[in-house]
Amino acid sequence: MTFMPPSASPISADERRSRIQALAAQLQAQGLAALLVGPTASLRYFTGLDWHPSERLTGALIHADGRLEYVCPRFELDKVSAVMSGETAVAGEVLTWEEDESPYALVAGRVPAGGRLAVDDQAATFIWLGLARALGAERLVDGGPLIVALRRIKSPAEIALLTRAKAITLEVHRRAHAWLKEGVLTSEVKRFIDAEHRALGGEGGSWFCLVSFGDDTCLPHGGEGDRALKVDDVVLIDTGTLIDGYHSDITRTYVFGEPTPEFRRVWEHEKQAQALAFEAAQIGATCESVDAAARDYLTGLGYGPDYRLPGLPHRTGHGVGLDIHEAPNLVRGDRTVLAPGMCFSNEPMLVIPGRFGVRLEDHFYMGEAGPVWFTTPQHSLDDPFGAEAAG
């Protein structure tokens, strides 16, 4: 049967304009003159301009009255103007600076006398320092809370893009599982996954593809070597792709051969921990309570406690959207209240040092009535894609 991913349309310019207006209202409410957005995912979120960071400032100045101004080097004017004129981008005045001029003085000149400027928290430190010299550090404010408050709630269009991305990656996982053979190198699996992501319409997966065999699966981010697959090896593959900038990030763990009784037992513990985290993710609950649901269950089985091994060495999940890891997170100390539109990974990994690790990772979003899976969790250890293929 031919795989057909769910459809999704790019984010429209109208939706981006509504985001800018929502931000402007927050700026007014907090008495801030403007927000400077650096060359980060937030620049794409608000304007549609996707710009890679460099030592030169390219970004956007969003004013409290809703005006949008781009800031870029003069030699990039034509490129920025071309992107800005696209159907899904938002137009605005472009402020340029020459190589012997200061972009920070340019930005400072656009802020009213005595006005305070919020700064994108993901922008490079040199941008903050340059603005501090030009404007005065006392007039700078952390813009992270303003941005996170908007970006953490996904619109239906964003949910659709995330759904498409994750469906594609799950199909790539299924194909990789069927393709594995004895002796294949982790690098070869990564190339296969990259090609399959591209074939299905996603961006290549080589930029984000973790393939681990055997005891390398003990390491949450994998080993350093290019290992060959052996019969009865544990296999852990964590990969994703991008659709219009929105991320997938799915992990599957199984055995290339016959699982040991110990591995089978730990795998079942992992699956139950993931299920309990999902059940705990209810509207009005806190992010940290979801982490506690998985961690308390594992502690009751003798793992841990806390982040100790054998056990769960990291948070239960992270937010996801235009960044693969974004706030809020399912972790102790994050008391963000779960609300419709929030999206998270669910991956309470179990690590048995020197032997193996098990991570089952799927994502969910908060619907009006509670959590909704983007992808069906792994069916079973022996038939990893049985339920998913049937669905």
Automatic annotation (TrEMBL):
Any one GO BP annotation for this protein: proteolysis
Pfam families associated with the record: Creatinase_N, Peptidase_M24
Presence of keyword GTP-binding: no
Domain (Peptidase M24): residue spans on this chain: 161-366
Alphabetic keyword roster: Aminopeptidase, Hydrolase, Metal-binding, Metalloprotease, Protease
Signal peptide: none
Source taxon at top rank: Bacteria
Domain Creatinase N-terminal residue range list: 19-153
InterPro entries, alphabetized: Creatin/AminoP/Spt16_N, Creatinase/aminopeptidase-like, Creatinase_N, Pept_M24, Pept_M24_MAP, Peptidase_M24B, Peptidase_M24B_aminopep-P_CS
GO molecular function: aminopeptidase activity; metal ion binding; metalloexopeptidase activity
Stored PANTHER family: AMINOPEPTIDASE, AMINOPEPTIDASE YPDF
Protein name: Aminopeptidase P family protein
